[in-house]
Amino acid sequence: MLAGSAALSAASGNSFGVDLWICPEGSVSAPLVDASVAWLSDDEAARWKRFIREEDRRRFLLARGLVRSVLARCTGQTPSSLAFEVGPHGKPALIGEPGSAPTHFNLSHTRGLVVLAVCREAEVGVDVEAIDRNLDPLRLAARNFSISERATLEACADENRATRFFEVWTLKEAYVKALGVGLTHELGAFSVMLDPQPPSIIEHVDGADRIAPCRCWLVEPMPGYRLGLVVRGDPRAAIDVRISGPYPR
Known about the structure:
This protein is an alpha+beta fold. 31% of the residues lie in helices and 30% in strands. A hairpin with a 5-residue loop joins strand 3 (84-86) and strand 4. The two termini are 26 Å apart.
């Protein structure tokens, strides 16, 4: 399911693409993942070694290997030569050559799945979640959702409420990641609108509502998961989302 794709023809003349890499943890051979150890920076290697559980170590290595291998292909560099910096709110960014256009990217992972969004023309945010977790959607929404989002969730049938929670949550987190502010942003200050399609973001500013300047997609990358993708910029732009994976060869 790729919600939002129907609006791609509503273009303003500005056109570009986003590469969305979807990498199930079990789809990449152990030798291929292990080979990416040599690409890690000293800081990444230290973080990798601090993980106690083997599951966490391999997920970290898979995620860093995916980022470095994909961005190396985009920039013409080698995976080990890439350098990164962290923004004031924790969003990583690729340090490019002086005068070169930036390559924007964002990474997310959950149990069993790693995803990476890459775009040269605009900032991106992505979030993926496994939806089979045991949680109380209404309790979590009371702390993190806007008034309209909570009302929509309360109106859902019991059997659909958890899935709807994750559909809203992934797009909320993808939006603040695209902004580069992460969860320091007040999550109740904007609302995710899933209907009508395609999804959109409504910002609540000084008592007024306005459509946020971004494009949104809701993806079911595999059964049991939801993925939110947000690209900043003109909502009328024609954006081609190209799904790839699981891992560059």
